[in-house]
C-alpha cells in the first residue's frame, strides 16, 4: 500500500513560494499541506494572490491552500505522522542524519505504516539542526555544486513527482516485526527525559543542544512500543 504523504513547510517566508508548493502538490495529486510558523501574514497573502489567479492550475491548487493547516511547531505538525524526512541539497553542512538519495526514497518508505511527513526548510537557510533532530533521515536532491539551491516550489515539485506521480508497487526492503514509535510518541519521551535531566543536572544542564541530542538518539534507536512503554515507566519513577 502506498504511504500517504504530508508536505510540511517550516517557517516559509515568501507567499509566492507557498502558492507554488501548493500548485506542485495539486499537479501530482497531493493535498495534505502544513505550515509551521509561517512568516508574518504570508499565508493570508498567498491565499489572496492565488485566489486572484485565473489559470486552471491555480484554481485546482486552491483546494490544497484552503485545506492547509498552520502549526506553531514541527512536533504539532507531525502529530499524525509515523515518520518524518527532511530535505536538503547537502552543500552547506553535514546534517548528522542518514541520507537517502531521492531515487531511493520510495523504497525507504515502503515499509512505513502510516503517514510520512516531508519537511522543507525556510527559503534562505533551509532546515536547521534543531529541525533535523525530528527527522529519521534526510532526502538529498542532487544538484550542481555551482548552483546548489532550489526554489521552495521547485523542491516540492521534484519530491512530489518522485513520491506521488511515479507510484509503483514496491515490496518493503525491510520486514519490520514491530512498529516503530511515531514522532509524537518520541516527543513525549524527550520531554520526560529533558525534565528529569534539567532537575538533576542543575547548572550542568546543556539546554536545547541536549534536547536535540536526546531527540535524535531516540529517533535513531527505532524503539518498539513495548520498549517505549518501559522507558516511559522508568522515567516516571521518582529518583
Written description of the protein model:
The protein folds into two domains: 5-165, 3-Layer(aba) Sandwich (Alpha/beta knot); 183-236, no CATH class. The chain has helices at 15-27, 42-51, 56-67, 74-77, 105-109, 129-132, 152-165, 183-201, 208-221, 225-236; strands at 5-10, 33-36, 69-71, 81-88, 98-101, 115-120, 137-140. The chain has a seven-stranded parallel sheet. Strand 1, helix 1 and strand 2 form a beta-alpha-beta unit. Residues 53-58 have low confidence and may be disordered. Helix content is 45%, strand content 15%. The protein is of the alpha/beta class and 239 residues long. Helix 1 (15-27) crosses helix 2, helix 1 (15-27) packs parallel to helix 7 (152-165) and helix 8 runs parallel beside helix 10. The protein is built from ten helices and seven strands. The radius of gyration is 19 Å and the shape is globular.
For this entry, give a set of tags:
239 residues; alpha/beta; Alpha/beta knot; 2 domains; 7-stranded parallel sheet
Task: Please provide the count of β strands.
Answer: 7
CATH superfamily of the largest domain: SPOUT methyltransferase, trefoil knot domain
* CATH architecture heading of the largest domain: 3-Layer(aba) Sandwich
Our estimate of the beta-strand percent is 5-15%
Query: Major sheet: order of its strands?
Result: 3-2-1-6-4-7-5
CATH topology of the largest domain: Alpha/beta knot
Secondary structure: elements and pairs:
Blueprint: E1 5-10, H1 15-27, E2 33-36, H2 42-51, H3 56-67, E3 69-71, H4 74-77, E4 81-88, E5 98-101, H5 105-109, E6 115-120, H6 129-132, E7 137-140, H7 152-165, H8 183-201, H9 208-221, H10 225-236
Parallel strand pairs: 1-2, 1-6, 2-3, 4-6, 4-7, 5-7
